[in-house]
Structures are given as structure tokens and as C-alpha cells.
Write a structure and sequence with these properties.
Its main location: mitochondrion. It comes from Daphoenositta chrysoptera (varied sittella). The chain is of the alpha/beta class. The chain folds into two domains: 184 residues, 2-enoyl-CoA Hydratase, Chain A, domain 1, CATH 3.90.226; 49 residues, Lyase 2-enoyl-coa Hydratase, Chain  A, domain 2 (Orthogonal Bundle). 51% of the residues lie in helices and 14% in strands. The strands form two sheets. Strands 1-2-3-5-8 form a five-stranded parallel sheet, with helices on both faces. A three-stranded mixed sheet has the order 4-6-7. Helix 2 links the parallel strand 2 and strand 3. The radius of gyration is 19 Å and the shape is globular.
């Protein structure tokens, strides 16, 4: 299996999520997800991402344009969780506003020690209400609200402590650590991972009884899949499984 890297490339604008950047991100995510070989997607950028391009949100643009920006952004963030492969955010630097939302929306996030995370919209009179959707689902409520009300950044270690990122490593180990996680994911069956990811996001918003009903059925379905049987047989026979694709 292969790992696809989507690099946010507009360092002059601190990788702002402008309409063209959002369209490009959606196109890359959808294009990569269709690849049979693909097992994992990594999103990264030299600044990571500074959020929306504020020049697009001035009063010179009409409400229709503003709606387009936020609707497309929401589509991209929800698309990440709908993709059949794990998506890793590799953060080396500042992730603010919609950039912070992107980190919170990814399945896994690996950050360098110098990384910071903030939702500073309140300071310029544009409260980060859409980033708050992802943030409030990743962080304890009071941590998310302190970020949203003050605009003050979380350090990488604080982000780790509160669960916004999965791992914090020295900057010179960031590539290696992200690659290690990607390679480990690549050892598993793509169809089993896809089933597991879709089920995880489906059950996580449910009450306990419903969550167990959903996952009990999925476990039974999983056993009927070719890779489910192959994995168990390989384990019993003490050999490496041969996945169907």
C-alpha cells in the first residue's frame, strides 16, 4: 500500500484556506481516495495552516461568496472522516482557526514540539464558530471554550495533554514518526480499516446501547469478509496474512 502526502502550498499567505486552496484540498482528497493502492493520507504544510483567507471575507465580497467559503470548508472537514483511509495531520508550526479545525478533523495528528494551536477569530471580531465544531468534538469543552474565548494558543504539549494531537516529537523526528505510523497502517487490510473507520465515527455520537448494537453487527459482518477470515487463519497458523488488496 502507498502513502499519499497532500502538502498545503501557499507559504506566502501562511497556507490560508482560500476558496482555491479548499477546492484543491477537496480534489486531492477525493482523487487519492479512489486509488486502489492508497492506504493512508498525510496532510502537511510549512506553516501548517493559518485558517481562512481574511481577504476573501471582507465586505467587498457578497454573502453568497462568504457562504461558499464556509460551506466548502465544512464539506472538506467532513469529507476527511468519510474517506475510507486514515488521514494524518503532520503539524510543524502554527495551526490557527480553520487550520486548527483541520487538525481536529483528521483521524491522527502528529506535531513537532514547536507547533501551536489557536482559534483567535474572537480577537478580530469573527468568532471561530465553524472551527468550534471540530474543536468541541476533540477537546474537553472547557479547554475548547477557553481557546475560543481568549484566542490564546495551546502549546504542542498542551494539545497532546488534552487530546487534540496524538503525538508530539522533536522537529527532526517528525517525518520519521509520521512515516512509522503510516507504515504500520499499511500493514493492515484496506477494506478492514475502511469498515473500522466508518463504524468508529458512526458509533461515537450514539448512546452506549445503540453504539454496541451497531458495532456488534459490524463485528459479525467483519467476520464474513475475506480479509477477516484470512487474518484469523493467518493468526492461528502463525503466518503473515495475505490481504485481498
Amino acid at each position: 500500500g502507498s502513502c499519499s502526502t497532500i502538502v498545503l502550498k501557499n507559504p506566502r499567505r501562511r497556507n490560508a484556506l482560500s476558496l482555491p486552496m479548499l477546492r484543491s484540498l477537496r480534489r486531492d482528497l477525493l482523487h487519492d481516495a479512489k486509488s486502489r493502492e492508497l492506504r493512508v493520507i498525510v496532510t502537511e504544510g510549512p506553516v501548517f495552516c493559518s485558517g481562512h483567507d481574511l481577504k476573501e471575507l471582507s465586505s467587498e465580497d457578497d454573502v453568497k461568496h462568504h457562504s461558499q467559503v464556509f460551506e466548502l470548508c465544512a464539506e472538506v472537514m467532513t469529507l476527511i472522516q468519510k474517506l475510507p483511509v486514515p488521514v494524518i495531520a503532520k503539524v510543524n508550526g502554527l495551526a490557527t482557526a480553520a487550520g486548527c479545525q483541520l487538525v481536529a478533523s483528521c483521524d491522527i495528528a502528529v506535531a513537532s514540539e514547536k507547533s501551536q494551536f489557536a482559534t483567535p477569530g474572537v480577537n478580530i471580531g469573527l468568532f471561530c464558530s465553524t472551527p468550534a465544531v471540530a474543536l468541541g468534538r476533540s477537546l474537553p469543552r472547557k479547554v475548547a471554550l477557553e481557546m475560543l474565548f481568549t484566542g490564546e494558543p495551546l502549546s504542542a504539549q498542551e494539545a497532546l495533554m488534552h487530546g487534540l494531537v496524538s503525538k508530539v516529537v522533536p522537529e527532526d523526528k517528525l517525518d520519521e514518526e509520521t512515516m512509522k505510523i503510516s507504515q504500520k497502517i499499511c500493514e493492515s487490510s484496506k477494506s478492514i480499516l475502511a469498515l473500522g473507520k466508518a463504524t468508529f465515527y458512526r458509533q461515537i455520537t450514539q448512546d452506549l446501547d445503540t453504539a454496541y448494537k451497531i458495532t456488534t453487527k459490524v463485528m459479525v459482518d467483519n467476520l464474513t469478509l475475506r480479509d477477516g477470515q484470512e487474518g484469523i487463519e493467518a493468526f492461528v497458523q502463525k503466518r503473515k496474512p495475505v490481504w485481498s488488496h
